[in-house]
From TrEMBL:
Residues 20-212 form the Aminopeptidase N-like N-terminal domain. Its cofactor is Zn(2+). The record marks 380 as: Transition state stabilizer. This is Aminopeptidase. The active site is at residue 325. Zn(2+) binds at residues 324, 328.
Amino acid sequence: MSNDASSPTFGRGRLPSSVKPRHYDVKITTDLVDLTFTGRVKTRLDILEAVSTITFHSVGLDLEDPQVMVFDGDTAHYVDVVNMEPDPKIQWVVLTLASVVRAGASAQLILDFKGNLSGSQAGYCRPKTPSGSASEYYAFTQLAPMAARRVFPCLDEPGLKATFAISLITDPNNVNLSNMPVVSETAYVVAGSEKSWKRTVFGVTPPMSTYIVAFATGPFTYRETSYQSPISGVIRPVRVYATSDMISQAGYSLEVAEKALPLYEQFFDLEYPLPKFDTFICSGFDAGAVENWGLIIGSPVSFLLDPKSRDFKSKLRVAHMQAHETAHMWIYPDWDCDARFLSERFKGGLTLDSKNSSHPIEVPDLDIDNVLEIFDGLSYAKGASVLRMLSAHVGQDQFWKGVSKYLKDHTYDSTVTKDLWDSLSAVTGIDVSDITDNWVTKIGFPVLTVSETGDGIHIRQDRFLETGPAQAEDNETIWNVPLNILTAAKDGVVSVDYKTVLRERETTIKLNKALPYKLNANTSGFYRVLYTGSAAEKIARLVGQKDTPLSVTDRVGLILDAIALAKANFTAVSESLAFLEHFRNEGDAIVWTTIAEGLNEVVDTWWEHEHISSMLASFQRDLFSPIAQRLGFKYSADEFVNVQSLRTCSITQAALAGDELVIQTLKTKFSEFMKSGDDSNIPGDLQVLTYSIANKYGTRTEYDFLKQLSKDSSSEPGRIAALLGIGASEDLSLAEETWKTYVREAIGGSDVSYIFVGLKTNPRTRRFLAEKFREDFDLLTKKFGGNYSFQILLRNSHEMLSTVEDHDAAKKFFETKTLDTILTRAAWVERSTEDLQQWLEKRDGSGKKTFAEDGGSSKCLIA
């Protein structure tokens, strides 16, 4: 509820700055039979400038009886509201007052409201309860990034923090949750209702943003532990809530939270500020998880783990999600620092930021229409990667001391990026903003081209675009680039210069070229490196050395760059694939997983070229089948994680490449499952692959079995694996049935996203998926528009296509980023098909020589 609507001070849809909220008192009655809610909100406002209007956010709510009471000195009086004007497009409401309220006064805005529980994943949502429950539905909130306005009238911008007092009026048998602990629960009478009700009053929150307000009501149960603060000695309860059908698999998530909380307190030197820590696992949740303060809400696949499972990927996923969301209780930017981060967040950030349609991390004057677009994977991934680069430059210990200072100095405050830079500068003595400014305020990132000179190396920076070398108008930014130069002495000792910064377009640096060297040590910088000529040849030989001085993160970065630079026409795709052959003796699972992802990118680009696809499959089998054969299918609880992960990667890639022995083994395991109902012989890490392979090479029988499993499985990972496997059938009549059952007739929720992933992964149904999406565009917009699901469905429906015709057919329906992806693939196919085919044919016809055996004659390679 802000002010003077006629002149917003920011972008379109941003509230004026003349009014600031101080406190919300929100009382909501939830009817899970009628699927409606009613409520009253009292909002205490500070008047910063004289106003005659009050503007606040509201969308999809019926508002009644607005009242404004003004507090001025020792007096209080009501001011008449002469008009209430909603603007559904901007999603705000303007109240016109009968008189001006002076600056320095305060006011209380009282509004009654009512709405319908949402079938999508934005606002106050209504997933179904498990069978046998007293009510068919329960309810929970999903308010990020700007859906609080769908639940109660408010000033719904992150910077407008206030305290919240939440009261829920519900069925007396329900368990009610919110950010704070329950203060009281009493019987309650709702006027005009013959039902029994109870009122649950929660404690008042610290100041916080509207998007992390959270509450839920339904037939929940919980598991509980506690932790003792290493700072104060206070013991706090830690709980995980879920419905009865899921709670038995919530133990591992609870264990991670119990261990993470004291570690984060010590790490940040700052105590967790709330009296309790809850996680609520919600079926149908589509955003992975949201870090609501004191009540994390997330999906079953993100937080559930069968206690008997040996599925390493699921265990890693749950541990990562719980630890990640727990860290958000202190700090918002996403953070990680190992090789797995590179293959997940870092890669995604580079990919998204290499598009012409990218955006800076920091976007001033943000319009309401762009919030969901800006609140995206790029903001997370690039933001995290820039922080990681900064940490390497200033030193990790100093970096985290600066972060701790920032958190202590700005507890409960709204902050801007400069506040973090100032804290880091104060601790490190380095002008941090000098390094970071262009990285957060400008679009894109550079590629550094490296060539050897007489006594060193020459380095030039240019903007990297996935469509190819940037034209002058797109290549104006000069980044301050920490070069992070790694060198290895003759005795094998590795040293890294983290202090040298490239501040101009190009420069020459002296170094001993006879010794191994590499830029961007540990891939800590958010940029790509293109090695040319003799520099490229040295890097290629270096990765193949038995005792290479390059770390896992170095090797992962080299592979990521190899594929990306070929895709962007900086190198030939044949050179990049030849480069991958140097890794045949590699032993690290994360490196092999990165190789697999790079090869899959090539395979998925040339999926409609039968001859090339066949030769690429042969190449994949040559790389991965020997590993799969050596490691076998037997998983052991006491084996190293690296072995387990490498087994999963190699079996998966061999199966996708058509290895007959691997495929037959997977089919046999699935057949035994169908006969016995016992899936214990299917390793959890291979569950999705097994289901998909069985359906791909199966008949209607396998399809129907998976369809039933998607409804009846007692294991949430098993149910999701079935949903993903359903899309693998090559029978288009079954694809039609899948679309009808899971998309057209579905109420909403995350199941549709899994179906889309299954269909897009299957080459046979990729174009089917795109056509069906356009055909049912209005229906999908109605079901999923305005939340995370719709963005995911948009991307998944078309991103695997790779012709100009596909781009033209999709143009009127899709956002620019999706179109960029299609055009990039199409350009890569048009430009590189002949090169790729010649290399594969030469390789197949020459005893499959490796690049090194073939003379290593590439003139241009990457890192």
